[in-house]
Amino acid sequence: YLVGVGRADCTGPVAQVPLMGYANPDQVGGGLLSRLYSRAFIVADPEDSKRVVFVSADIGMVSQRVRLEVLKQLQSRYGELYRQDNVILSGTHTHSGPGGYFQYTLFWITSKGLVRPALSSIVNGIVKSIDIAHENMKRGRLFINRGTVENSQINRSPFSYLANPESERSRYSSNTDKEMVVLKMVDEDGHELGLISWFAVHPVSMNNSNHLVNSDNVGYASYLFEQEKNKGMLPGEGSFVAAFASSNLGDVSPNTRGPFCTNTGEPCNNPQSTCPIGGAAMCMAKGPGNDMFESTRIIGQNIYLKAKELYEKASQEVRGPLSSAHQWVKMSNVTVQLNATHTVKTCKPALGHSFAAGTIDGVGAFNFTQGAVEGDPFWDQIRDQLLGEPSNETKACHKPKPILFSTGEMTWPHPWHPDIVDVQIAAIGSLAILAVPGEFTTMSGRRLREAVKSEFDSHGTPKMNVVIAGLCNVYTHYITTYEEYQVQRYEAASTIYGPHTLSAYIQLYRGLAKAIALNATQELSPGPEPPLFNVTSVTLLPSLSAENAPAGKTFGDVLGEVRQEYGEREVAEVTFVGANPRNSAENATEHNFLTVERYSNISSSWHVVLNDASWDTRFYWSKGSRGQSNVTIEWHIPAGAEPGVYRLRYFGHYKKRLSLFRTITVPFEGSSSAFQIT
């Protein structure tokens, strides 16, 4: 094959934009722990024009808006080379990235609308990573390996899982998929290019009290792998690219100690995930570490170490033709042939009451509980008044789900949920990547993989390695099994196209697999094209106005100085007169907010040893009154840090008023005093 890899920043605004994932409107960005990246991999046939592109981006999920804008840009650059059928865009599902990149109304509620700078940095970052991969194509080889990851996940809805038939459950040793699949890429001389790992776990080691933008546990795994392979480079630099992509993580949590009542400390692993005092709002899962930062590192390191082992031992070469199959489907109206005599249908999208309960990884508001199969007259009445009552047809279709939001019947100012959804498979020789538009639960993923594998088998393509890539192309929440759906925990309440959603997807992906196996992808009907709403920016974000430094100070002045000396495992900290970090995101595509620098006696100059993409640094922004704000930079000095003289630097932009109607953005910087590490 010809192989190319690329990585580009897609962080966007790190302040004031709500973080996407927990749907908690109070969880807005207030700084940076680690940068977000888009990682792109292109595999091409040297003989003809066939190509496959796989992108894994450190974002909550790929939205339809992101996908449509990326495809538009690719078409204007490359013509028909990169298209909706051969480009897969997948989100890692971090819950600590900026939101606001959606065109469907439901997602505007918690992300304060459509935030153009957030959307643009994701779209541009994805396109740039593909550009870099495209420019670096060289002859190469691919190897695949698989293995088991221990101590890194639990099933967060075990009572739903138990609703699946005993005969099915008995075929599996665990209620989560512990298997990791690794695809290793080297050039023809054996030089290492990169890897993609697929593993099912929610990147929610950082909980909903976090305000620092970061890529969570799987992002930390990428960071460790890339730091190891790009020796001597700063984080985010170097040619080796390591993506830790999402899979069927729907009911899988990294918070391995399980759910406890935050007020009493007793376990709350019951079907409703509620506590005797305080109800569901008190039931939260704990990770393996003492705090969320440590849990993120522990889980990330587990995943990294297994990937490293599988990568080093990978010997099974991937060979064979490239192909891709894609359809747009009106997901609210699919007829599913269950057997010779019986058909069922999917529904218009709707969310159930337990959607509002959230999960043990991030509880909801108002004390909704999971497992609600009856509505609550109080909330139903409020909904009827505000949003209109669901139609009888939709109510009947979704049974036993009590509908909270009948999003498929809500169209103001735009539809609240997607109707047209992508289904897509890309095959690289013996590897088939199923790009799914949401979060399949453990058992849903198993059923889908098995169905697709048997479809390949029965059409003369045996021994296919089938992997699920999650959160691709358009976000449609969760996909549970029919049996799990009956229990109506959070994942089931969020299965928006009704009880037969999984059966519909299985039928659709079988069709794609058959077309690939029979070399008939040209005959697939493309389906109805999704809409691109004519909305460029609708946002409740505060506007960026002129800023001030306190009397007698200027931007970048130190307000709280470092100590003169630190030891390892201590935290060096400095506070500056700061400015809104959104200014930087809107003025520089790849702005670095901080550096840790070491003084070299040999050259009598300062050398950058860390940047803001490092997991050892934290950048905090806090807004004060009268247009003033502070920035605090922390360096959590690791064990084994090299002794010497260091300083911390800050780079920002402030808005300066020129006249009544004009402000300009002015760059500035600040530096701490020098300090010693002993």
UniProtKB/TrEMBL annotation:
Origin superkingdom: Eukaryota
Source organism of this protein record: Anthoscopus minutus (Southern penduline-tit)
Pfam families found in the cross-reference section: Ceramidase_alk, Ceramidse_alk_C
Cofactor info, note text: Binds 1 zinc ion per subunit.
UniProt EC number: 3.5.1.23
GO CC, alphabetical: cytoplasm; extracellular region; plasma membrane
Any GO BP annotation: sphingosine biosynthetic process
Family, as annotated: Belongs to the neutral ceramidase family.
Reactions accelerated catalytically: an N-acylsphing-4-enine + H2O = sphing-4-enine + a fatty acid
The protein, known as: Neutral ceramidase
